[in-house]
Automatic annotation (TrEMBL):
InterPro entries: DUF2189. The chain crosses the membrane at residues 133-151, 157-178, 207-234, 254-283, 304-336. Residues 51-99 are annotated as: Disordered. This is DUF2189 domain-containing protein. Pfam families: DUF2189. Residues 54-68 have a biased composition (Basic and acidic residues).
C-alpha cells in the first residue's frame, strides 16, 4: 500500500496471512502506528509495516514502541508455532510416500499363466500342423548341421557355448511361427512359404534386430572362450574324452562351471528380455529396433513373475530337446514359438496391437 496513506487500526492483514509470513520468513516486520505499508530497508529488502495493535507484547506486558526503533518480529511470539510449520517442536517432518503411479505395461498375471500360453501354442501347432512340423524339422536339421561342422573343422571347444547361445537367437529364428499364429488369429491359413518368407511391418528394423542378436551371440561365444583361457590357460582343448573329468572332478573345473554359468545366465537373461517381445512387435507394428528392444525389456520387467516362469519353461524344454540329440526340437520349437506369440498378445497393451507406432528412443518427425 502507499506509504502516505494513514488507514485506521482496523485495516490490518488477516491473521492467517501473518502466520504464513512468519513461516515463510518474508523478512522483518516493522510496526508503525496506524499504517500498513511496505518499507524499503537499508539492506535493500522490503518490510511490511503493521499497525500498533498488531505488535506483540513485551515481557512486562508493554507494547514495543516503534518510535524508539524497536523492531517487531512475528517469530518473537511466545505461543506455539503454526500447525503447518514442518519444524514445529524441533521435529523432522514425516516423509510422505509418493502417490502410486499407473503401470501401463503391467498386467498382474500369475505365474501359472505361462502354462496357458503353452497350451495355446500346442493348439496352434495342431491347427494346420504340417507347416509348423516342417519348421521344427528345419530347426532340427540346422542344429545337427552346426554340430557336425564344429566337429568337422575341429571347433568342438565352442560346442557348449554354441548350444547356450541358441537361446540368444531363438526368438529370431521363430519369426515364421509368430506369423502363423498371427494369421490364425485373423482367420487365415499360413503355409510353409508364408512362414519362411515373412514380411514384417518394420522390415529394415527387423533386419537390424537380427544383426544385433547375432552380434550378441558372437560376443557370448568370445566371452566363453576367454573364460576357458582364464582358468586353463592358452592350451588345446583336451577333447570330450577328458573334458568331463576336468570339469566335474577338479576344483578348477568347478570354478569354471560356476563362473561360466553365471556369465551365461546374464547373457541369456539380457537377450531374453530384449528379444522375447521385440521380434513379434517388429512383425506387427511399425517402429524402430531400439525402441522395440527397450519396450520388450520394459514389458518383461513389469511382468517379472510370469516372465520368469516362462523363461524357466523355455530353458527346461530346450535342455530336454538337446538331450534327445535335437530331435525334440521338431515338436518343442514350434510349440514355444506359437506360445511366445500368445504371451506377446497377453502382455502388450491392446491399443498398441493395432499397428500404432510407439517409439521409446527415436521419436517420429
Amino acid at each position: 500500500m502507499n506509504g502516505d496513506r494513514r488507514p485506521t487500526d482496523d485495516a490490518v492483514p488477516h491473521p492467517l496471512l501473518l502466520e504464513r509470513a512468519a513461516h515463510l520468513g518474508l523478512g522483518r516486520l516493522i510496526a508503525d502506528r496506524g499504517s500498513i505499508h511496505w518499507r524499503k530497508c537499508s539492506s535493500g529488502h522490503r518490510r511490511l509495516q503493521l499497525p500498533v495493535r498488531m505488535r506483540p507484547e513485551t515481557p512486562t506486558g508493554r507494547r514495543r514502541d516503534p518510535a524508539r526503533g524497536e523492531a517487531v518480529m512475528l517469530n518473537d511470539r511466545k505461543g506455539p508455532p503454526p500447525p503447518d510449520n514442518p519444524h514445529a517442536h524441533g521435529m523432522i517432518p514425516k516423509v510422505v510416500p509418493p502417490l502410486p503411479r499407473a503401470k501401463p505395461r503391467s498386467r498382474d498375471l500369475p505365474w501359472r499363466t505361462a502354462f496357458t500360453w503353452l497350451r495355446a501354442g500346442w493348439s496352434d501347432l495342431w491347427t494346420n500342423p504340417v507347416p509348423s512340423l516342417l519348421y521344427g524339422i528345419g530347426v532340427f536339421l540346422a542344429s545337427a548341421l552346426v554340430v557336425w561342422l564344429l566337429f568337422r573343422f575341429e571347433l568342438d571347444y565352442v560346442l557348449f557355448p554354441a548350444l547356450a547361445g541358441f537361446l540368444v537367437i531363438g526368438p529370431l529364428i521363430a519369426n515364421g511361427l509368430y506369423e502363423k499364429s498371427r494369421r490364425l488369429e485373423e482367420g487365415r491359413r499360413a503355409g510353409i512359404r508364408d512362414m519362411v518368407l515373412v514380411k514384417p511391418a518394420s522390415s529394415y528394423s527387423a533386419l537390424f534386430m537380427g544383426v544385433l542378436l547375432v552380434g550378441l551371440f558372437l560376443l557370448w561365444m568370445r566371452a566363453a572362450v576367454l573364460i576357458w583361457a582364464l582358468f586353463f590357460g592358452v592350451l588345446p582343448f583336451p577333447g570330450f574324452d577328458e573334458v568331463a573329468s576336468t570339469l566335474f572332478l577338479t576344483p578348477t573345473g568347478w570354478s569354471l562351471l560356476l563362473v561360466g554359468s553365471a556369465v551365461g545366465a546374464l547373457f541369456a537373461a539380457f537377450s531374453f528380455a530384449i528379444s522375447v517381445f521385440a521380434v513379434p512387435m517388429l512383425l506387427e507394428e511399425r517402429t524402430d529396433a531400439m525402441s522395440a528392444l527397450g519396450i520388450s525389456m520394459a514389458m518383461v520387467w513389469n511382468n517379472l513373475l510370469v516372465m520368469i516362469a516362462w523363461g524357466a519353461i523355455v530353458l527346461f524344454l530346450c535342455l530336454m530337446s538337446v538331450a534327445t540329440a535335437f530331435v525334440g526340437f521338431i515338436l518343442v520349437f514350434p510349440i514355444l514359438g506359437h506360445a511366445t506369440w500368445h504371451a506377446y498378445r497377453a502382455i502388450r497393451p491392446d491399443e498398441r496391437q493395432s499397428g500404432v507406432s510407439e517409439r521409446m528412443f527415436v521419436r517420429p518427425a
